[in-house]
Specification:
Layout (H helix, E strand, L loop, with lengths): L8 H10 L35 E5 L1 H4 L8 H4 L6 E4 L9 E4 L13 E5 L2 E2 L17 E8 L3 H4 L5 E7 L8 E9 L3 E11 L3 E12 L8 E14 L2 E16 L6 H6 L6 H5 L3 E17 L2 E17 L4 E21 L2 E23 L20 E25 L3 E18 L11 E19 L2 E12 L3 H5 L15 E13 L5 E12 L2 E5 L7 E5 L2 E15 L2 E16 L1 E2 L2 E2 L11 E10 L3 E10 L2 E2 L7 E2 L2 E14 L2 E10 L7 E4 L9 E3 L4 E9 L8
Parallel strand pairs: 4-7
Antiparallel strand pairs: 1-6, 2-3, 4-5, 6-7, 8-9, 8-37, 9-10, 10-11, 11-12, 12-13, 13-14, 14-15, 15-16, 16-17, 17-18, 18-19, 19-20, 20-21, 21-22, 22-25, 23-24, 25-26, 26-29, 27-28, 29-30, 30-33, 31-32, 33-34, 34-37, 35-36
């Protein structure tokens, strides 16, 4: 499949303008999309059919009931162009990838902006820790696929905005859920919530324990969420909190091909010897306010968070104490100028990240008998000498302007631009005769424009085309990990910049079929590429590639036939290096590693009077594991199934779930570590796991009059 001749702006504009108008008979089709509104477009609350880019809205528990809410691969499933790689490593976040951006992240989520109810979880340097993200209360996922920098700043792949479910419309309601499954997996959840005429509240707490599919992958975690909302005086206001305490999260590391084939449950011996793991605490509170009036809409938000991390790794013991804060304000103003209706959106965001980072020698692998050394003076203590002590301060400011022009009854033209400045500062605190002052600063800035046109072909169908630019800075850690071993800031590592051309169609057919399809081509300059150095103990370094090319197609489908809900998401990804040379090795023409060329997800939910049966399937192509494409992880097909049954007593009820992941016990690789040293590329996916869950649910509706 070739998408040649796809890049000129005129081609995509002509595509939209020349599409035929669909017959009026389809205007009366089922309109499941029509009442849906999203906020991810930053142009006030809009229908997905009114946005000139690829956007998907999912209600995970409604489409696929019986979820355990253990990881993001459950929540962000069945979205074309987006993949979540569960690394089966409790000390590492899952990898979220949109159009290939973020697929090679060494830690956290990269290349994608992640928000919770409009409040950013992504740090100003572009990294997103999602280990503290509560999934029990998520009711909707809004995903923007494609360049997001013109509205959201430091991101190349898109936006994931997770929205909290509405509280029960009763004064007091509660629920208790208990899960038990394979590999010592246990989860207990307690929930409470309710709502009155103007005030709503909800809270939940969960305790999760697991021994893990792989050896040395034990986890213990407690997390919680609370939200208070108020509608008053023409405005809506909310205060929410998320928190997490994970005292134990072991790191089994990655495997070579030989280790994988011998036993996929193995842990990397070096990770065990060095006691690689993490202990982390996080707390974040935020407030949002929104007011809608006759002359427009205004929204504001503010948040603050703290995080503490103790992270023994194979190459060092890393300690981070973090404080983050931020705020934003946005106004949307409709007006008419020269007989043309406009919808103008203007906004500003500020973020601050303040990290105290200290690295120590890892003394967990000293040969016996133990002998004191210069770097490990007390072999009984795992922390050796201090090798890094610095304050890392990252601040960002971004302002954006967006205007939507209504051109007649059918067409809308949108133009936007955002200016961002991201400042990195390092204050070295380890200065002596042998350690020079490595303090320094860098300013990385960019202006990211976007232009798009949308045609409403009918009340339930639209087509669009756009061209957009994006930029993505290195994170503070990526700038600090210098191949030379020096401290301070890497001044050679540049931000990557990209330009995307996209066109697509979306809507609802006469039979209620929901669809969205997109074609895109993205060119990236100075793409950030991870690599390892032999004997570095798994430490990740980064360099810039010359140019890469991403050409792809996405298709999402959904339909309800009587009691059967069907869904599918297909992604075709032809992502290659076009200009990339390392020393004497030229990688032009090689596939970008870490991304399968094709992936298909499908689900079916059959709803009966006594139970609902859910089946899911994922079929993925092989993917290269290094820049040279000399080795690949094999493709795979995975199937999941579960039965959800329940009954009610008055306004309360109970629900029982039996399920199995990877029903056919397939061996497969769920994630890879790109360009890993020593051939340690592979992170195996879990084989068959059976589980059961019981939910007791309090009153969720008011009594009948």
């Amino acid at each position: 499949m070739k998408l040649r001749g796809f890049t000129p702006v005129t081609a995509v504009v002509v595509f939209v303008v020349s599409l035929p108008r669909l017959g009026d008979a389809q205007d009366t089709a089922a309109t499941r999309l029509a009442p849906v509104v999203v906020e991810v477009g930053r142009g006030a609350h809009r229908s997905p059919l009114d946005l000139p880019f690829a956007v998907t809205v999912q209600t995970p528990d409604s489409l696929r009931p019986g979820q355990r809410h253990l990881a993001l691969d459950e929540t962000l499933w069945l979205i074309p162009g987006l993949t979540v790689s569960n690394r089966n490593n409790p000390s590492q976040d899952p990898r979220i990838s949109i159009r290939g951006f973020g697929a090679r992240s060494a830690f956290g989520v990269r290349g994608i902006r992640v928000l919770r109810d409009g409040i950013p979880l992504t740090l100003p340097d572009g990294q997103t820790p999602v280990d503290y993200l509560d999934l029990e209360s998520v009711g909707r996922a809004e995903v923007m696929r494609g360049s997001a920098s013109s509205l959201y700043g430091n991101a190349g792949g898109g936006v994931v905005d997770l929205r909290t479910t509405d509280p029960p419309r009763v004064p007091v309601s509660g629920a208790v859920r208990a899960w038990n499954g394979a590999f010592g997996s246990r989860k207990m959840v307690v929930k409470a919530g309710g709502a009155g005429p103007r005030l709503g509240y909800q809270a939940n707490a969960a305790r999760t324990e697991s021994n893990g599919y792989r050896n040395y992958s034990r986890q213990r975690m407690t997390n919680g969420f609370a939200r208070l909302s108020l509608d008053a005086g023409g405005g809506s206001y909310a205060l929410q909190w998320m928190g997490m305490n994970t005292p134990v999260a072991e790191n089994p590391g990655t495997l070579t091909r030989a280790q994988l084939e011998l036993d996929p449950r193995l842990a990397d011996p070096l990770s065990i010897r060095r006691s690689a793991r993490k202990a982390v605490k996080q707390s974040q509170a935020g407030v949002t306010a929104r007011r809608v009036g006759a002359r427009g809409e205004i929204e504001a938000s503010a948040y603050a968070a703290t995080r503490s991390l103790d992270n023994p790794l194979a190459f060092a013991i890393v300690e981070v104490g973090r404080a983050t804060s931020g705020g934003s304000v946005r106004a949307t103003l409709p007006f008419t100028f020269l007989r043309t209706d406009h919808r103008l959106t203007i906004g500003t965001e500020l973020q601050l990240q303040n990290d105290l980072r200290r690295n120590f020698v890892n003394c967990n692998d000293i040969p016996r008998p133990t002998v004191p050394t210069a770097t490990c003076p007390d072999p009984a203590v795992e922390r050796g000498t201090l090798t890094l002590d610095q304050r890392e301060i990252v601040s960002s400011i971004g302002s954006y302007l967006r205007d939507e022009l209504q051109l007649g009854e059918r067409y809308t033209f949108t133009a936007s631009a955002r200016a961002d400045a991201v400042r990195f500062r390092v204050k070295d605190r380890l200065i002596d005769a042998t350690n020079p002052d490595d303090s320094g600063r860098r300013l990385l800035d960019a202006v990211s424009p976007m232009a798009g046109i949308l045609a409403r072909l009918s009340a339930t169908h639209s087509a669009y085309a756009n061209v957009s630019a994006a930029f993505e800075t290195p994170t503070a850690t990526e700038l600090g990990n210098q191949p030379s071993g020096a401290a301070g800031i890497n001044r050679d590592l540049k931000p990557q910049r990209s330009t995307t051309y996209e066109m697509g169609v979306k809507g609802i057919g006469a039979s209620g079929l929901q669809y969205n399809a997109a074609l895109f081509a993205t060119g990236v300059h100075d793409e950030l590429i991870p690599f390892d150095i032999p004997a570095s103990g798994g430490r990740r370094y980064f360099r810039n590639a010359g140019r890469t090319s991403r050409r792809g197609a996405e298709l999402g489908l959904g339909v309800a036939v009587w009691a059967l809900d069907l869904g599918a998401a297909y992604t075709y990804a032809n992502y290659r290096f076009t200009d990339f040379t390392v020393d004497t090795a030229a990688y032009a023409g090689s596939r970008i590693p870490g991304i399968p060329r094709q992936i298909l997800q499908a689900s079916a939910a059959l709803r009966g009077g006594l139970a609902t049966f859910v089946a899911e399937a994922t079929v993925a192509d092989k993917m290269a594991v290094n820049d040279a494409n000399s080795e690949s992880s094999p493709g795979y097909a995975i199937f999941n199934a579960r039965i959800v049954t329940g009954g009610s007593l008055g306004r309360s009820g109970a629900e029982l779930t039996f399920g199995a992941q990877n029903v056919f016990n397939t061996r497969y690789v769920s994630s890879v570590s790109v360009n890993a040293a020593g051939g340690k590329f592979y992170e195996p996916g879990a084989q068959r796991s059976v589980y059961v869950g019981l939910s007791l649910i309090g009153p969720t509706r008011a009594p009948s009059p």
